[in-house]
Amino acid sequence: MLAVAAMALSFLTPAKAEAVTYSQLLSARSQAAASKKRVANLKSQLSGVSSSLQSQILELDDLTNNQIPAAQDAVDSANSASADADEAAESASQRLSAAQKDKADLQKKIEETGKDYDDAHAAVAEVARTSLHGSQASDTMSIVTGAQDASDYVDSMQTSAAISRSEAETANSAAEDLSTSKNREQRLAAIEQEIKDLKAKADSEAATAKQAAADAKEKAAHLQSLREEGNSKRAALEAKESQLKTSAAKEAAETLVIQSKVDSFNEQYAAQQAAAAKRAAANAAKAQGTYKSYKKKTSSHSSHHSSSGSSHKGSGSSSSSSSGSGSVSSGTVGHPTGDVGNMYPFSQCTWWAYIRRHQLGLPVGSYFGNGGDWASSARALGYKVNHTPSVGAIVSFAPGQNGSNAQYGHVAIVERVNSDGSIYTSNCGAVMQGRIYYQTVYNARAYWYIHS
Questions:
Q1: Predicted local distance difference test score (pLDDT) of residue 240
Q2: 357 and 445, same domain (yes or no)
Q3: What is the rounded CA–CA span in Å between residue 290 and residue 12?
Q4: Does the predicted model carry a pTM greater than 0.70?
């Protein structure tokens, strides 16, 4: 059956498109099946709800769980392609610059010693002379000081001359055998042809990079429009939630609202991180410029500073001892938060838990350890830790609990406490590459919850 599906896909796919692998086909089928099942469950929960409100909820579900993730994948792929194209264009440009420099250097040599001068021949001869017998002056001095009489001196000089002639003949022969021993005029023609080819390659790579950047920009704009549409539909749904009478319908709507809000929060977080990185780069450049200016300004007085600097030894040391005091700030929670920034590896469950707590304006520590260690780490700092779930709380699973990693455990954020006592959580993991997934957890009181 899969083979038939793959064959059908091949007829629908353009000839130049990449082949769909077996694992990709399975993944696509699995995702399609999961989406179909989710929509069926959602419709079941919305039984009795007006058709117009049902449509509104289903549209938000499609935007949040299908269209926006697909658009995000397209943006990521386009950004990666754009980065690769930029790198290829830069590499081609550098090769072109190197060839142009070779041409300029060669033209300068032609002006100095002519176009027919054979550099390879001269270089090999010089290497042979230098490596085999050193300089002529040193050899002559060696013969003079080593000769026992005039006759010995003459014999030695004749022998030395014979050796030199042999070396020169060997060098000449080597130069003639070199495949690269073109004269300068030939080499210049070859470099000019290379520059022509490289110029065409560089122009092509630059055009590809420009198109890739435009494609990435277009896909980012499409993603942004989808998110704006999702925010609008979410706001409209929130205004009509009072029309939902059954607990199942309310939970379905609230779950969708949560997912939409998390996506919106993540977009804001990414924008904040990008802005922070830009500011950091600007500050670093400014600091580097200030340092260079300072070095230039003070270089003329270096001797003065070196003689008088010892009188300032130890100045400023008191300020360094106070650095990092923010790590024990308690904010408004009445105990140390342990927060000095997100120190958890990208895409790990702990990385996401830190981000989401900040999105919700709640405290979280930077060094709580593995997921299964978070409850004890938080308790040691004074956080409220118990078995009672609440919205925004961190749920910590011991190793192996609820299918978590048998060595590290897991953490997630409680997004909703359902009417049946189960909890709806947002999660991340290494294999998710920074994407968030959701899970309904039953037997909720079996786990530890970290509050404030």
A1: 92
A2: yes
A3: 60
A4: no
